[in-house]
Design goal:
Elements (H helix, E strand, L loop, with lengths): L1 E6 L9 H12 L4 E2 L4 E4 L12 E8 L5 H15 L9 E6 L4 H12 L4 H11 L2 E4 L5 H10 L10 E8 L12 H11 L3 E2 L19 E7 L2 H10 L6 E9 L5 H4 L10 E8 L4 E2 L5 E7 L5 E6 L4 H7 L7 E11 L4 E13 L4 E4 L11 E2 L6 E2 L6 E2 L5 E4 L7 E3 L31 E3 L4
Helix pairs in contact: 1-2, 3-5, 4-5, 6-7
This protein binds zinc ion.
Length: about 450
């Protein structure tokens, strides 16, 4: 058994680590046995240097002893030849032979929630890897190791699949020609076993990335079989170079499974927070309020950002005394010398009763009374009744929010966040291979 992981081969200027994966698959497919789908592992989305989604790839393969070196060399060659040339692109490849050490599994959990240094990753690589390979500063070794260590073992971890289709190189830079009506049809026929195809607020299809990305479209779902059906339904008017189905931690909340309520810059956060002041709307539409982390009593800013639209409208209705389970990431704001939790998801767990104060009614005539001055009680203008011991009425305010889980709409969800449509699905405790989980058509 051989595990190959790699990461950081793309940049904002182009390429995609999953696309590079298909190039390696094409070269090694006939010489190895794939023991798992290629895994697409999303790690802590808050690390400051992430390219786009902070996604890394791992293969779990059965390889004959005499083919080991050839398979590894082929993989390294493809990364050397195909990675994006960019100072911010620093590929790394890791190879583990045999079973995955516990230490690597723990490392993979940390990569979901923390910021890991290149040096820490190199130390692990030197200790555990059969081979490893670094380009540039080798930052990709972090994701490479984390992808191998995150085995998404059924029964232990939730997982989903993503079918990714790729454009021929000639099309890159042109508008993607994917038929919108067919995307809607696919979603109608296959949801909830596919998810995040259409943004529920805007009605827009969100399966196509933008710009120079070689991905034509990607469809997320619960089973590989369902994704092959989706492939048949979605109509395109441009050639497809290849497609591949990945097993992933996207849409699973896996990062929150290992998150804690510690306040550390760039880490993920999960914890109970009590609202201690009224939410404010900032310029640009962001909503922010001060909250107290229950476990540590620390005061933090809690923010819902503009792209999260309707989610913001829930957050702005929170009031002092309400409690939420906050899920998100921690940022240190130098200018305010304070930490901000940027919400990715929120569960309202306590809605505090709120009151407004009103003048009391006259016990004699029923007319509303008026204040007779500070600490002088109330008087009635109609019948002249006066009472210095009568106090204001406390009227309960009807709250416009309900207990429950709130998540930004599909378009503004981060890759790892579990969409609501997945909450009621039975958990999967196995997966099996479909024929044709990948296919190469033509490169140009
Ligand atoms: Zn009166």
């Amino acid at each position: 058994m051989l595990h190959i992981g790699f990461d950081d081969t793309d940049s904002l200027k182009g390429n995609c680590t999953t696309h590079l994966a298909t190039k390696i698959i094409e070269k090694i497919y006939n010489k190895v046995e794939f023991l798992d789908y290629p895994r697409l592992i999303r790690n802590n989305p808050n690390v400051p240097w992430r390219t786009r989604g902070n996604g890394a790839i791992a293969f779990t393969l059965g390889v004959k002893e005499e083919d080991l070196n050839e398979i590894i060399s082929l993989s390294i060659d493809i990364i050397e030849e195909n990675h994006q040339e960019d100072p911010d692109t620093n590929p790394g490849l890791a190879v583990i032979k045999g079973n995955i050490p516990l230490e690597l599994k723990v490392f993979a959990q940390r990569a979901l929630t923390d910021v890991i240094s290149i040096n820490d990753a190199k130390t692990i690589a030197r200790k555990l890897c059969f081979r490893y390979h670094l380009i540039g500063n080798g930052r990709g070794i972090i994701g490479a190791l984390a992808a191998i260590g995150n085995t998404l073992t059924p029964q232990e971890e939730d997982f989903t699949f993503e079918l990714l289709t790729y454009r021929i190189s000639h099309s890159i830079g042109t508008k993607r020609k994917v038929d919108f009506e067919s995307i809607k049809k696919m979603d109608r026929e296959l949801a909830p076993l596919v998810f995040n195809n259409i943004d529920e607020e805007t009605g827009k299809a969100i399966i196509c990335p933008a710009g120079l990305d070689p991905v034509l479209y990607g469809i997320r779902g619960e089973k590989a079989e369902v994704l092959l059906k989706a492939l048949e339904i979605v109509q395109i008017e441009e050639p497809m170079e290849a497609y591949c189905i990945f097993r992933t931690n996207q849409g699973t909340d896996q990062h929150f499974k290992y998150s804690i309520s510690a306040i550390r810059n760039f880490n993920t956060f999960k914890g109970e927070i009590e609202v201690v002041d009224t939410p404010k709307t900032l310029v640009g539409g962001h909503i922010i309020f001060k909250g107290m982390v229950t476990e540590s009593s620390k005061i933090v800013d809690v923010a819902a950002f503009e792209p999260s639209k309707s989610f913001r409208r829930i957050i702005e209705k929170l009031m002092i005394g309400d409690k939420i389970l906050a899920y998100g990431s921690v940022r240190y704001k130098k200018e305010f010398q304070s930490f901000t939790i940027q919400l990715e998801k929120c569960e309202i767990i306590k809605i505090e009763e709120q009151f407004k104060e009103e003048s009391p009614f006259c016990p004699n005539c029923g007319k509303r009374m008026t204040s007779d001055g500070k600490e002088k009680g109330y008087k009635c203008r109609k019948c002249k009744y006066k009472n210095r011991h009568i106090s204001k009425l406390k009227i309960p305010i009807e709250r416009e929010i309900q207990l429950g889980v709130y998540i930004p709409p599909a378009q503004s969800q981060r890759h790892l966040v579990k969409p609501l449509i997945r909450y009621n699905l039975p958990s999967k405790n196995a997966f099996h291979f479909v024929n044709n989980w990948w296919k190469k058509y033509s490169s140009n």
